[in-house]
């Protein structure tokens, strides 16, 4: 066994220097195993902001780096991994691949990665269950006004008012559910909600799914149809130029009066000032959000509205999911060592030859 491991360690004929951005909470053993099997060196940054990180880049500190792993939180150290930063990474390092610890990778300019010959991977599928559970919590909580009931109860209002003065909610049964984005997360949300007896489930994607993947959900040719027909709308789209502010004044006006909206994708898919007006007028009867346009600097007026159920971006905030995601990032590094290809290339780069 010892000889086998030694041979495998040098089987690729190269070493790999990995810049690890962001904290590792649960996958340290996976990293240790990787280092023990391959000629991998792990480098950390001391930067506290983008300016300091760029200074490190230009100093030559990362000149031998081949691979970058990053977390959602690492944006505090680097800022957005945009064209400017990627060009600096390309100039001052030897990076040819990057692994982002998350399903959504809007913090990284995938198209620019492709132009510079940098592979970009994400973590698909592993986030589906935890994020779908969060969506179900928000949906039921919003429809039933559970958050304000809890807050009112803690204020002692139950002593003088029925159900602590909470407005009467609604059941999901016989309502029309619309899922905007029926990827892995959207389909898992659908599966979680099947027992709640919605009258029908609609969805909109760029492309219609196979009947096997639809499982009885009805495809809407355009997003306006989904908005017009849904009593409850759950959002699971990636953030990009086409989905930014897809929920806005115009789209809200198309929706049914009293619609319920749930967002577990990315905050900027919603124009929050427009949503706030709709919540105050009753056009939107309730909103459940895990993600926010300017998080963590959330609009306090919005989240304090009585018909808002809110969470601080907790969709994947479980030990099991976070551990699996971190370990998948390590698997991407291992796959790159073995094949010069990452394990899960993002869709924008699938047709590019690296």
UniProtKB/TrEMBL annotation:
Keywords: Oxidoreductase
Residue ranges of domain D-isomer specific 2-hydroxyacid dehydrogenase catalytic in the record: 80-346
Family statement: Belongs to the D-isomer specific 2-hydroxyacid dehydrogenase family.
InterPro entries: D-isomer_2-hydroxyacid_DH, D-isomer_2_OHA_DH_cat_dom, D-isomer_DH_CS, D-isomer_DH_CS1, D-isomer_DH_NAD-bd, NAD(P)-bd_dom_sf
Record Pfam families: 2-Hacid_dh (PF00389), 2-Hacid_dh_C (PF02826)
Organism: Pichia californica
Gene Ontology molecular function: any one: glyoxylate reductase (NADPH) activity
Name this protein carries in UniProt: Glyoxylate reductase
GO CC terms in record: cytosol
PROSITE patterns per UniProt: D_2_HYDROXYACID_DH_1, D_2_HYDROXYACID_DH_3
Every D-isomer specific 2-hydroxyacid dehydrogenase NAD-binding domain range: 137-315
